[in-house]
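Shipment paperwork, digital attachment
Item: protein structure file
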Amino acid sequence: MLVKFDELPKSSKIWVYQCNRSFTEEEISKLNKDIKTFLEAWSAHGNQLKTSFLIKYRRFIIISVDESQSNASGCSIDSMVHFIQSLEKEFKVDLLDKMNVSYKHGEHIAFKPLLDFKKMVKQRAVNANTIVFNNLVASKQEFEDYWEVPLKDSWHARFL
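Attachment content:
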């Protein structure tokens, strides 16, 4: 069952998929339709999941499920990963590689491979106050509180 994101409880499970480029407006329109179709049919052991999603900054797909009603099982999570892989092929993008960093550069969202980002820290091209995206957040509460944070307050701080 698809609901508005703000209707999900703070304890809802979150998955963040970052794209290696910005989606176009046409792609976002298609993504919205495809994700809605997937989530409306998404289930775990025959139980419909209470879900929602966001597309943020034209670059991030955030999927959430309220596990207080029914947990996302291994099989249902696998089906979501297969769905995300199909989006990667359709849009010719990378959504599953966790070895990349997205951060704010003024109003722009920049994307770098992790090794390049580490070099940028050493060269002081980014600093402790640079806003980074912590895509390891696991709940809606963490997403709201710790997804966009200064580098010094994220797991990225180990590069400082």
